[in-house]
Amino acid sequence: MRFGLFGTGHWAQVTQGAALVAHPEAELVGVWGRDPARTAALAGRLGVAPYADADALIADCEAVAVALPPDVQAPLAVRAARAGRHLLLDKPVSLTVADADEVVEAVAGSGVASVVFFTARFDPEVGAALETAAAAGGWSSARVVMYGSIFAQGGPYAGSQWRREHGGLWDLGPHALSRLLPVLGPVAEVSALRGAHATSHVLLRHDSGAVSVMQLTLDAPPAAQPFGYQLFGDAGVVDLPGGSGDPVVNFGRAINELLAQVRAGRPGHPCDVRFAREVVAVLDAAQRSEEDGRTVAVR
To answer: What is the DSSP secondary-structure string of 26-85?
Structure first.
């Protein structure tokens, strides 16, 4: 399958671009980015053509792989889907529910396949643990703690403006929810507070009656960076695995799963744009709760 790569940042270079070039059943035909010099540099590094026009690359490929800020990704994904191109997107799929809805509608209208890359969900150990937990049931609560520190000078994401503006809630929140939702089910309402070190403390009430907690930041003190995923219920306390940490391998699996959907002619994946829209709706509710100081229903 012919892929176009959209984006020229760190993630496009070291993860998506590397995985697409290495994949035996993918042909990377070109790169488009907002900065022509960076586009040319990455295209040269990957051995493909640089594109000055995004629509020209959409026309020349069968699927798009996107590594762009969410507010840039969403409208591009809509254009690609309406052109009949399959979507391999990154999380979060957008920064607003309205934009996520447009992506879902474009995919439904065209019948293309979609996969959104929630990194650890493509790790077999994590996937198996979530399936086992969901099948067992009986979970009354859960806690996810993700304290990162990514803004140090010289770090690959130090200059990421959307991450600075939207923080751990929108960058780490999708990872947390990709573990919580398959086990505890949809979220009905959210209460959230912003604490020290730009930490989002988010309380979620699920339709199932379970309550989960997320603690998320990208600006933690270097000496305080815990990551953990725990379920509490009839079976006791279960620590979910964090994943292998090799995003290139996991992205290769995401390519496999997109190709499998296309070949089967049955679009629909546990991490498709509909699931990604559900994640955005929860994050949107949490953001409004932080801003308004009240419990917010998920739309």
So the answer is: -EEEEEE-SSHHHHHHHHHHHTSEEES-HHHHHHH-SEEEE-S-HHHHHHHHHHHHHTT-
Within 8 A by CB and 6+ apart from 4, the residues are 28, 29, 30, 31, 32, 51, 57, 58, 60, 61, 63, 64, 65, 85
DSSP secondary structure string for all residues of 179-225: HHHHHH--EEEEEEEEEGGGEEEEEEEETTS-EEEEEEESB--TT--
User: Residues 256-291: pLDDT tens digits?
Assistant: 999 999 999 988 999 999 999 999 999 999 999 999
151-167 burial by CB neighbour count: b if 16+ within 10 A, else e?
A: eeeeeebeebebbbebb
- Pairwise CA distance, residues 46 & 41, whole Å: 9
Tens-place pLDDT, residues 182-234: 999 999 999 999 999 999 999 999 999 999 999 999 999 989 999 999 999 99
- pTM (global) more than 0.85: yes
For 106-121, the pLDDT digits (tens) are 999 999 999 999 999 9
